[in-house]
Design a protein that fits this description.
The protein is an all-alpha fold. The chain contains 22 helices and no strands. The protein has one domain (6-433): Proton glutamate symport protein. Helix 3 crosses helix 10 (206-221), helix 4 (77-109) packs across helix 12 (231-254) and helix 4 (77-109) packs across helix 21 (386-411). It is globular and about 70 Å long. The N and C termini lie close together (5 Å).
Length: 436
Protein backbone atom coordinates (compact mmCIF):
# COMPACT_ATOMS: atom_id res chain seq x y z
CA UNK A 1 0.00 0.00 0.00
CA UNK A 2 1.22 3.50 -0.76
CA UNK A 3 1.82 5.96 2.10
CA UNK A 4 -1.13 7.97 3.33
CA UNK A 5 -1.53 11.47 1.89
CA UNK A 6 0.26 14.32 3.65
CA UNK A 7 -2.80 15.70 5.45
CA UNK A 8 -3.39 12.36 7.22
CA UNK A 9 0.04 12.15 8.76
CA UNK A 10 0.75 13.12 12.36
CA UNK A 11 1.60 16.77 12.72
CA UNK A 12 3.52 18.73 15.35
CA UNK A 13 2.78 22.26 14.24
CA UNK A 14 -0.89 22.46 15.19
CA UNK A 15 -3.85 22.92 12.90
CA UNK A 16 -1.89 24.98 10.38
CA UNK A 17 0.16 21.89 9.59
CA UNK A 18 -2.86 20.22 7.96
CA UNK A 19 -2.89 20.52 4.19
CA UNK A 20 -6.67 20.98 3.94
CA UNK A 21 -6.55 23.98 6.30
CA UNK A 22 -3.64 25.51 4.39
CA UNK A 23 -5.60 25.16 1.13
CA UNK A 24 -8.72 26.67 2.72
CA UNK A 25 -6.79 29.66 4.04
CA UNK A 26 -5.10 30.05 0.65
CA UNK A 27 -8.51 30.13 -1.09
CA UNK A 28 -9.78 32.79 1.32
CA UNK A 29 -6.61 34.84 0.90
CA UNK A 30 -6.80 34.53 -2.86
CA UNK A 31 -10.41 35.70 -2.87
CA UNK A 32 -9.47 38.75 -0.80
CA UNK A 33 -6.56 39.64 -3.08
CA UNK A 34 -8.74 39.21 -6.16
CA UNK A 35 -11.46 41.42 -4.67
CA UNK A 36 -9.36 44.28 -3.28
CA UNK A 37 -6.61 44.21 -5.92
CA UNK A 38 -8.15 42.75 -9.12
CA UNK A 39 -5.14 43.52 -11.30
CA UNK A 40 -2.80 41.80 -8.84
CA UNK A 41 -5.21 38.86 -8.64
CA UNK A 42 -5.23 38.40 -12.41
CA UNK A 43 -1.44 38.57 -12.41
CA UNK A 44 -1.29 35.59 -10.01
CA UNK A 45 -2.79 33.21 -12.58
CA UNK A 46 0.63 31.62 -13.34
CA UNK A 47 0.76 30.25 -9.77
CA UNK A 48 -2.37 28.18 -10.34
CA UNK A 49 -1.28 27.16 -13.82
CA UNK A 50 2.17 26.15 -12.58
CA UNK A 51 0.76 23.93 -9.83
CA UNK A 52 -1.60 22.16 -12.24
CA UNK A 53 1.36 21.58 -14.57
CA UNK A 54 3.31 20.11 -11.65
CA UNK A 55 0.52 17.65 -10.95
CA UNK A 56 0.00 16.79 -14.63
CA UNK A 57 3.74 16.12 -14.81
CA UNK A 58 3.32 13.25 -12.35
CA UNK A 59 -0.09 11.92 -13.43
CA UNK A 60 1.21 9.72 -16.28
CA UNK A 61 3.71 7.75 -14.13
CA UNK A 62 1.18 7.51 -11.27
CA UNK A 63 -1.47 6.00 -13.55
CA UNK A 64 1.00 3.71 -15.31
CA UNK A 65 2.53 2.35 -12.11
CA UNK A 66 -0.82 1.99 -10.34
CA UNK A 67 -2.53 0.20 -13.23
CA UNK A 68 0.40 -2.05 -14.13
CA UNK A 69 1.13 -3.21 -10.57
CA UNK A 70 -2.60 -3.58 -9.92
CA UNK A 71 -3.22 -5.81 -12.95
CA UNK A 72 -0.01 -7.78 -12.48
CA UNK A 73 -1.00 -8.39 -8.86
CA UNK A 74 -4.18 -10.19 -9.89
CA UNK A 75 -3.93 -13.95 -9.87
CA UNK A 76 -5.67 -14.46 -13.20
CA UNK A 77 -6.73 -12.49 -16.25
CA UNK A 78 -10.38 -13.29 -15.60
CA UNK A 79 -10.14 -11.13 -12.48
CA UNK A 80 -9.03 -8.16 -14.60
CA UNK A 81 -11.96 -8.61 -16.95
CA UNK A 82 -14.36 -9.06 -14.03
CA UNK A 83 -13.28 -5.83 -12.29
CA UNK A 84 -13.35 -3.93 -15.59
CA UNK A 85 -16.84 -5.22 -16.40
CA UNK A 86 -18.17 -4.23 -12.98
CA UNK A 87 -16.54 -0.80 -13.19
CA UNK A 88 -17.93 -0.06 -16.65
CA UNK A 89 -21.39 -1.29 -15.66
CA UNK A 90 -21.29 1.19 -12.78
CA UNK A 91 -19.93 4.00 -14.98
CA UNK A 92 -22.55 3.49 -17.67
CA UNK A 93 -25.41 3.34 -15.17
CA UNK A 94 -24.58 6.47 -13.22
CA UNK A 95 -23.27 8.50 -16.16
CA UNK A 96 -26.59 7.89 -17.89
CA UNK A 97 -28.48 8.75 -14.70
CA UNK A 98 -26.53 12.03 -14.44
CA UNK A 99 -27.50 12.90 -18.03
CA UNK A 100 -31.17 12.17 -17.31
CA UNK A 101 -31.05 14.23 -14.11
CA UNK A 102 -29.66 17.24 -15.99
CA UNK A 103 -32.33 16.79 -18.65
CA UNK A 104 -35.13 16.52 -16.09
CA UNK A 105 -34.04 19.55 -14.06
CA UNK A 106 -33.65 21.66 -17.21
CA UNK A 107 -37.22 20.82 -18.23
CA UNK A 108 -38.62 21.53 -14.78
CA UNK A 109 -36.70 24.70 -13.87
CA UNK A 110 -36.26 26.01 -17.45
CA UNK A 111 -33.38 28.36 -16.51
CA UNK A 112 -33.10 29.98 -19.96
CA UNK A 113 -36.78 30.38 -20.80
CA UNK A 114 -36.98 34.11 -20.01
CA UNK A 115 -33.99 35.25 -22.09
CA UNK A 116 -35.49 35.20 -25.64
CA UNK A 117 -32.14 35.53 -27.44
CA UNK A 118 -32.07 35.90 -31.23
CA UNK A 119 -29.27 33.55 -32.40
CA UNK A 120 -28.32 35.88 -35.26
CA UNK A 121 -27.28 38.54 -32.71
CA UNK A 122 -24.71 36.28 -31.06
CA UNK A 123 -21.00 36.52 -31.86
CA UNK A 124 -19.79 32.99 -32.50
CA UNK A 125 -16.19 34.15 -32.88
CA UNK A 126 -15.50 33.75 -29.16
CA UNK A 127 -16.23 30.01 -29.32
CA UNK A 128 -14.55 29.32 -32.65
CA UNK A 129 -11.58 27.63 -30.98
CA UNK A 130 -13.83 25.29 -28.97
CA UNK A 131 -15.86 24.44 -32.06
CA UNK A 132 -12.65 23.61 -33.91
CA UNK A 133 -11.55 21.26 -31.14
CA UNK A 134 -14.96 19.64 -30.94
CA UNK A 135 -14.11 17.11 -33.67
CA UNK A 136 -11.63 15.55 -31.23
CA UNK A 137 -14.56 14.34 -29.14
CA UNK A 138 -16.24 12.41 -31.96
CA UNK A 139 -16.36 8.64 -31.74
CA UNK A 140 -13.83 8.32 -34.58
CA UNK A 141 -11.54 10.88 -32.98
CA UNK A 142 -11.83 9.05 -29.67
CA UNK A 143 -10.85 5.68 -31.15
CA UNK A 144 -7.84 7.20 -32.91
CA UNK A 145 -6.81 9.31 -29.92
CA UNK A 146 -6.74 6.36 -27.50
CA UNK A 147 -3.84 4.72 -29.40
CA UNK A 148 -0.55 6.66 -29.09
CA UNK A 149 1.85 7.01 -32.02
CA UNK A 150 4.55 5.35 -29.93
CA UNK A 151 4.59 3.63 -26.56
CA UNK A 152 6.74 6.38 -25.07
CA UNK A 153 4.61 9.02 -26.79
CA UNK A 154 1.72 8.12 -24.49
CA UNK A 155 3.67 9.65 -21.60
CA UNK A 156 4.66 12.84 -23.41
CA UNK A 157 1.26 13.65 -24.94
CA UNK A 158 -0.44 14.17 -21.58
CA UNK A 159 -3.44 12.06 -22.65
CA UNK A 160 -4.79 9.97 -19.76
CA UNK A 161 -6.51 7.50 -22.08
CA UNK A 162 -3.30 6.76 -23.97
CA UNK A 163 -1.36 6.16 -20.75
CA UNK A 164 -4.19 3.96 -19.50
CA UNK A 165 -4.22 1.98 -22.75
CA UNK A 166 -0.47 1.32 -22.62
CA UNK A 167 -0.59 0.51 -18.90
CA UNK A 168 -3.37 -2.06 -19.31
CA UNK A 169 -1.54 -3.81 -22.15
CA UNK A 170 1.76 -3.77 -20.23
CA UNK A 171 0.11 -5.03 -17.04
CA UNK A 172 -1.60 -7.89 -18.88
CA UNK A 173 1.67 -8.83 -20.57
CA UNK A 174 3.50 -8.71 -17.24
CA UNK A 175 0.88 -10.98 -15.67
CA UNK A 176 0.99 -13.47 -18.56
CA UNK A 177 4.80 -13.78 -18.39
CA UNK A 178 4.44 -14.87 -14.78
CA UNK A 179 7.41 -15.73 -12.55
CA UNK A 180 10.18 -14.50 -14.92
CA UNK A 181 8.60 -11.02 -14.73
CA UNK A 182 8.68 -10.95 -10.91
CA UNK A 183 11.85 -8.78 -10.75
CA UNK A 184 10.24 -6.23 -13.10
CA UNK A 185 7.09 -6.10 -10.96
CA UNK A 186 9.19 -5.68 -7.82
CA UNK A 187 11.12 -2.84 -9.48
CA UNK A 188 7.90 -1.08 -10.54
CA UNK A 189 6.50 -1.35 -7.01
CA UNK A 190 9.69 0.21 -5.63
CA UNK A 191 9.49 2.99 -8.21
CA UNK A 192 5.85 3.51 -7.23
CA UNK A 193 6.92 4.09 -3.64
CA UNK A 194 9.31 6.82 -4.78
CA UNK A 195 6.78 8.40 -7.14
CA UNK A 196 4.11 8.60 -4.45
CA UNK A 197 6.64 10.18 -2.09
CA UNK A 198 7.20 12.74 -4.83
CA UNK A 199 3.44 13.27 -4.98
CA UNK A 200 3.50 14.09 -1.27
CA UNK A 201 6.20 16.68 -1.88
CA UNK A 202 4.30 18.29 -4.76
CA UNK A 203 1.07 18.42 -2.75
CA UNK A 204 2.78 20.78 -0.31
CA UNK A 205 2.60 23.38 -3.07
CA UNK A 206 -1.19 23.01 -3.25
CA UNK A 207 -1.94 26.12 -1.13
CA UNK A 208 0.17 28.26 -3.47
CA UNK A 209 -1.61 26.89 -6.52
CA UNK A 210 -5.06 27.34 -4.98
CA UNK A 211 -4.18 30.89 -3.90
CA UNK A 212 -3.11 31.90 -7.41
CA UNK A 213 -6.04 30.22 -9.15
CA UNK A 214 -8.78 31.72 -6.95
CA UNK A 215 -7.13 35.17 -6.91
CA UNK A 216 -7.21 35.17 -10.72
CA UNK A 217 -10.84 34.02 -10.86
CA UNK A 218 -12.11 36.65 -8.42
CA UNK A 219 -9.85 39.36 -9.86
CA UNK A 220 -11.07 38.73 -13.41
CA UNK A 221 -14.78 38.13 -12.82
CA UNK A 222 -15.40 39.96 -9.53
CA UNK A 223 -16.42 38.61 -6.14
CA UNK A 224 -20.05 39.35 -6.91
CA UNK A 225 -19.95 36.83 -9.73
CA UNK A 226 -19.15 34.15 -7.18
CA UNK A 227 -22.53 34.79 -5.55
CA UNK A 228 -24.78 36.00 -8.35
CA UNK A 229 -23.94 33.86 -11.37
CA UNK A 230 -27.45 33.63 -12.71
CA UNK A 231 -30.15 31.02 -12.77
CA UNK A 232 -28.18 28.52 -14.87
CA UNK A 233 -25.22 28.33 -12.49
CA UNK A 234 -27.47 28.15 -9.42
CA UNK A 235 -29.50 25.38 -11.05
CA UNK A 236 -26.36 23.47 -11.99
CA UNK A 237 -24.94 23.65 -8.46
CA UNK A 238 -28.27 22.58 -6.96
CA UNK A 239 -28.56 19.67 -9.39
CA UNK A 240 -25.01 18.52 -8.65
CA UNK A 241 -25.69 18.66 -4.91
CA UNK A 242 -28.85 16.62 -5.46
CA UNK A 243 -26.86 14.03 -7.39
CA UNK A 244 -24.04 13.80 -4.83
CA UNK A 245 -26.05 13.77 -1.61
CA UNK A 246 -29.20 12.25 -3.06
CA UNK A 247 -28.23 9.69 -5.69
CA UNK A 248 -24.68 8.93 -4.54
CA UNK A 249 -25.80 9.24 -0.92
CA UNK A 250 -28.28 6.39 -1.46
CA UNK A 251 -25.60 4.34 -3.25
CA UNK A 252 -23.20 4.91 -0.37
CA UNK A 253 -25.77 3.92 2.26
CA UNK A 254 -26.67 0.78 0.29
CA UNK A 255 -22.99 -0.17 0.33
CA UNK A 256 -22.49 0.47 4.03
CA UNK A 257 -20.82 3.87 4.26
CA UNK A 258 -21.78 7.52 4.62
CA UNK A 259 -21.38 10.01 1.78
CA UNK A 260 -20.93 12.80 4.34
CA UNK A 261 -18.08 10.95 6.03
CA UNK A 262 -16.49 10.25 2.66
CA UNK A 263 -16.63 13.94 1.77
CA UNK A 264 -15.03 14.80 5.10
CA UNK A 265 -12.31 12.19 4.52
CA UNK A 266 -11.54 13.78 1.13
CA UNK A 267 -11.79 17.38 2.34
CA UNK A 268 -8.21 18.32 1.43
CA UNK A 269 -8.56 16.97 -2.09
CA UNK A 270 -11.97 18.61 -2.56
CA UNK A 271 -10.60 21.99 -1.50
CA UNK A 272 -7.73 21.51 -3.92
CA UNK A 273 -10.16 20.70 -6.73
CA UNK A 274 -12.24 23.75 -5.79
CA UNK A 275 -9.22 26.04 -5.75
CA UNK A 276 -7.69 24.83 -9.02
CA UNK A 277 -10.94 23.93 -10.83
CA UNK A 278 -9.27 20.68 -11.88
CA UNK A 279 -10.05 17.19 -10.59
CA UNK A 280 -6.77 15.99 -12.11
CA UNK A 281 -4.92 18.00 -9.46
CA UNK A 282 -6.13 15.55 -6.81
CA UNK A 283 -5.92 12.30 -8.81
CA UNK A 284 -2.69 11.00 -7.20
CA UNK A 285 -4.02 11.73 -3.71
CA UNK A 286 -7.32 9.99 -4.50
CA UNK A 287 -5.45 6.82 -5.44
CA UNK A 288 -3.54 6.92 -2.17
CA UNK A 289 -6.60 7.62 -0.05
CA UNK A 290 -8.72 4.91 -1.64
CA UNK A 291 -6.00 2.34 -0.92
CA UNK A 292 -5.61 3.67 2.61
CA UNK A 293 -9.40 3.34 3.05
CA UNK A 294 -9.27 -0.39 2.43
CA UNK A 295 -9.98 -0.62 -1.30
CA UNK A 296 -7.87 -3.33 -2.95
CA UNK A 297 -4.92 -2.03 -4.91
CA UNK A 298 -5.87 -3.84 -8.16
CA UNK A 299 -9.38 -2.36 -7.98
CA UNK A 300 -8.08 1.15 -7.29
CA UNK A 301 -5.56 0.78 -10.10
CA UNK A 302 -8.32 0.06 -12.61
CA UNK A 303 -11.30 2.05 -11.35
CA UNK A 304 -9.77 5.44 -10.50
CA UNK A 305 -7.90 6.09 -13.79
CA UNK A 306 -10.72 4.74 -15.96
CA UNK A 307 -13.23 6.68 -13.89
CA UNK A 308 -11.44 9.91 -14.73
CA UNK A 309 -12.16 9.12 -18.37
CA UNK A 310 -15.53 7.36 -18.28
CA UNK A 311 -17.28 8.32 -15.03
CA UNK A 312 -17.81 12.06 -15.43
CA UNK A 313 -21.06 12.60 -13.53
CA UNK A 314 -20.63 16.36 -13.14
CA UNK A 315 -19.75 16.81 -16.80
CA UNK A 316 -22.79 14.79 -17.86
CA UNK A 317 -25.18 16.87 -15.73
CA UNK A 318 -23.63 19.99 -17.24
CA UNK A 319 -23.96 18.69 -20.81
CA UNK A 320 -27.73 18.19 -20.87
CA UNK A 321 -28.51 21.11 -18.56
CA UNK A 322 -26.40 23.59 -20.53
CA UNK A 323 -27.63 22.32 -23.91
CA UNK A 324 -31.29 22.76 -22.90
CA UNK A 325 -30.51 26.15 -21.35
CA UNK A 326 -29.14 27.34 -24.70
CA UNK A 327 -32.16 25.94 -26.53
CA UNK A 328 -34.56 27.63 -24.09
CA UNK A 329 -32.66 30.93 -24.21
CA UNK A 330 -32.88 30.95 -28.01
CA UNK A 331 -36.57 29.95 -27.97
CA UNK A 332 -35.85 26.59 -29.60
CA UNK A 333 -38.54 24.12 -28.59
CA UNK A 334 -36.97 20.66 -28.59
CA UNK A 335 -39.24 17.63 -28.89
CA UNK A 336 -38.73 14.69 -26.55
CA UNK A 337 -37.21 12.78 -29.45
CA UNK A 338 -34.67 15.55 -30.04
CA UNK A 339 -33.88 15.72 -26.34
CA UNK A 340 -33.19 11.98 -26.15
CA UNK A 341 -31.06 12.27 -29.29
CA UNK A 342 -29.10 15.03 -27.58
CA UNK A 343 -28.72 12.81 -24.51
CA UNK A 344 -27.38 9.92 -26.61
CA UNK A 345 -24.91 12.17 -28.40
CA UNK A 346 -23.81 13.67 -25.07
CA UNK A 347 -23.13 10.19 -23.71
CA UNK A 348 -20.79 9.41 -26.61
CA UNK A 349 -19.08 12.79 -26.82
CA UNK A 350 -18.41 12.91 -23.07
CA UNK A 351 -16.40 9.69 -23.41
CA UNK A 352 -14.51 11.04 -26.41
CA UNK A 353 -13.52 14.12 -24.42
CA UNK A 354 -11.36 12.25 -21.94
CA UNK A 355 -7.92 13.84 -21.74
CA UNK A 356 -8.97 16.95 -23.72
CA UNK A 357 -8.27 20.26 -22.01
CA UNK A 358 -11.48 22.17 -21.28
CA UNK A 359 -13.40 18.94 -21.86
CA UNK A 360 -16.75 20.14 -20.53
CA UNK A 361 -17.08 23.12 -22.84
CA UNK A 362 -15.55 21.31 -25.83
CA UNK A 363 -17.86 18.31 -25.49
CA UNK A 364 -20.82 20.66 -25.29
CA UNK A 365 -19.70 22.15 -28.61
CA UNK A 366 -19.39 18.64 -30.06
CA UNK A 367 -22.87 17.72 -28.87
CA UNK A 368 -24.55 20.86 -30.18
CA UNK A 369 -22.82 20.53 -33.55
CA UNK A 370 -24.55 17.18 -34.04
CA UNK A 371 -27.95 18.54 -32.93
CA UNK A 372 -28.38 21.38 -35.48
CA UNK A 373 -31.69 22.64 -34.09
CA UNK A 374 -29.77 24.17 -31.16
CA UNK A 375 -27.54 27.05 -32.35
CA UNK A 376 -23.85 26.50 -31.61
CA UNK A 377 -23.45 30.27 -31.26
CA UNK A 378 -25.62 30.02 -28.14
CA UNK A 379 -22.57 28.75 -26.29
CA UNK A 380 -21.41 32.36 -26.06
CA UNK A 381 -24.17 32.85 -23.48
CA UNK A 382 -22.41 30.59 -20.97
CA UNK A 383 -18.78 31.22 -21.92
CA UNK A 384 -18.35 33.87 -19.22
CA UNK A 385 -19.62 31.69 -16.37
CA UNK A 386 -18.24 28.35 -17.54
CA UNK A 387 -15.22 28.76 -15.26
CA UNK A 388 -17.46 28.67 -12.20
CA UNK A 389 -19.41 25.69 -13.45
CA UNK A 390 -16.11 23.95 -14.18
CA UNK A 391 -15.36 23.93 -10.45
CA UNK A 392 -18.65 22.21 -9.69
CA UNK A 393 -18.15 19.73 -12.54
CA UNK A 394 -14.74 18.79 -11.17
CA UNK A 395 -15.99 18.36 -7.59
CA UNK A 396 -18.90 16.16 -8.69
CA UNK A 397 -16.66 14.07 -10.96
CA UNK A 398 -14.17 13.60 -8.13
CA UNK A 399 -16.73 12.48 -5.52
CA UNK A 400 -18.40 10.22 -8.09
CA UNK A 401 -15.13 8.40 -8.75
CA UNK A 402 -14.42 7.98 -5.03
CA UNK A 403 -17.85 6.39 -4.52
CA UNK A 404 -17.39 4.18 -7.60
CA UNK A 405 -14.06 2.87 -6.30
CA UNK A 406 -15.52 1.82 -2.93
CA UNK A 407 -18.60 0.25 -4.53
CA UNK A 408 -16.65 -1.77 -7.11
CA UNK A 409 -14.18 -2.87 -4.40
CA UNK A 410 -17.12 -4.12 -2.33
CA UNK A 411 -18.64 -5.94 -5.32
CA UNK A 412 -15.29 -7.57 -5.96
CA UNK A 413 -14.81 -8.61 -2.30
CA UNK A 414 -11.70 -6.42 -2.16
CA UNK A 415 -12.86 -3.95 0.50
CA UNK A 416 -11.38 -3.96 4.01
CA UNK A 417 -14.34 -2.79 6.10
CA UNK A 418 -12.22 -2.06 9.17
CA UNK A 419 -9.83 0.12 7.19
CA UNK A 420 -12.75 1.93 5.53
CA UNK A 421 -14.45 2.64 8.85
CA UNK A 422 -11.17 3.78 10.37
CA UNK A 423 -10.58 6.15 7.45
CA UNK A 424 -14.07 7.61 7.42
CA UNK A 425 -14.13 8.12 11.19
CA UNK A 426 -10.75 9.84 11.27
CA UNK A 427 -8.82 6.92 12.78
CA UNK A 428 -6.78 6.11 9.67
CA UNK A 429 -3.30 4.75 10.24
CA UNK A 430 -0.46 7.23 10.17
CA UNK A 431 2.13 7.25 7.42
CA UNK A 432 4.70 5.53 9.62
CA UNK A 433 2.26 2.72 10.41
CA UNK A 434 1.54 1.88 6.78
CA UNK A 435 3.87 -0.59 5.16
CA UNK A 436 4.42 -0.53 1.42
Amino acid sequence: MHPAPPDDTPTRGGWLSHLYLQVLLAILAGALVGHFAPAAGEALKPLGDAFIKLVKMIIAPVIFLTVVTGIAGMTEMRAVGRVAAKAFAYFLTFSTLALFLGLAVANIVRPGASMHIVPATLDAGSIADYATKAHETSVTGFLLAIIPDTMVGAFTAGNILQVLFVAILFGIALSLVGKPAAPVLDLLERIATIVFRLVGILMRAAPVGAFGAIAFTVGKYGVGSLVDLGKLVATFYATSLLFVFGVLGVVARANGFSILKLVRYLKAELLLVLGTSSSEAALPSLIEKMEAAGCGKPVVGLVVPTGYSFNLDGTNIYMTLAALFIAQACDVDLSWGEQFTLLAVAMLSSKGAAGVTGAGFITLAATLSIVPSVPLAGMTLILGVDRFMSECRSLTNFIGNAVATIVVARWEGALDRDALNAALTGQIMSEDAIHV
